[in-house]
Request: fold
Amino acid sequence: MEVLKIATAGSVDDGKSTLIGRILYDTKSLTSDKLEAIEKTSKQKGYDYLDFSLATDGLVAEREQGITIDVAHIYFSTKTKSYIIADTPGHVEYTRNMVTGASTSQVAIILIDARRGVIEQTNRHFFINNLLRIKEVIVAVNKMDLVDFSEEKYNAIKADFEALMSKRDYKEQKITFIPVSALQGDNVVNKSEKTPWYKGDTLLNHLENLNTIDVYNQGTPRFPVQYVIRPKTEEYHDFRGYAGKVYGGELSVGDDVVVLPSQTKSKIKDIYFYDKKFQTASRRSSVTITLENDINVSRGDMIVKADDIPTIDKQLTATICWMDSNQLTTGGKYVIQHGVNKVIAKVDKIHHKINPDYSGINTDVTGLDMNDLALVSFKLNKPMFYDAFENHRTNGSFILIDTQSNNTVGAGFIK
Reply:
């Protein structure tokens, strides 16, 4: 079954958690005990409706304040797809959480309060989705019930957002507008009779009809080696396999390949999944590969097609989202975790800070504070094999780890 990862974004009280709760409720994905808890808590608060945000807001502080602070991942399935929704916070001070939630998603849902329209935070949310190269963006104009399901109000918001779209640099994005009321369920799972002027799909139907091939950033195949398999049995005494996950494309038996960083050439001999052999390993499949040559391959190496080798270099430039309370400064040393590979990196230059509201850049920068986005260059202690993020989301991204605390302090998207 296809798996679709979705990130939500919106300002405080735009209704992200309520929208997700409504989807879970209308698709009958809530357990009976969870539904009972929602009904009980809603009555205790004096509501004459079910507070669906309680289905996702897990922290005590979230439930008490009615806001989202942490990134919650919600899982549900229909007959055609499995979904993972990252319910990300909308506050400015939680930009890092939104970047984390959206970095692995193929679809984004940006909520806009129909009463307030496009605001500064909308710019920020769209900017981050543009930065992370998310192909499918759904703009859900929520709380239509509070503006009497006005077509005029909806069209005004749509026009304002289309003006914002002209500022993006990622033109492959498809933008879909849907008027909804998460609280009442209009156009979320079921079609609303209150918006006869809207001829499009409901939110769920739109997701159901998406082709995952279209929304994934198709790249060239990259196979980071997770584990070298050398059985100790007599039957498989000479077996040498390389286990890992295929990212970005397909690998097939007979493909000419190169092993990085040694750049040793070989051909794929067999592809195994457990005890079965396959001719082709598709994107995102976990397999074991054997090569025709008995060459030296270790964990952290990467197998790629011979005619499509990534950049191999001891320096790189990336957009960094800084996530730590301690500043990132020029000269600082960190560990870059790039897939299964680790490299010591020194900050060579902070080129500029990026204002994530389309207001430009700031070149007068001496360091990065928490939630800052900036273009930064690094020098590495050994070659890294990488792609530009816009060409390959997996092989073009990394995390930064503090060498002293061992904490994850940043996320990088390679230019």
Summary: The chain has three domains: 2-215, 222-305, 311-414. Confidence is low (pLDDT under 50) at residues 58-69. Residues 151-165 form the longest helix (15 residues).
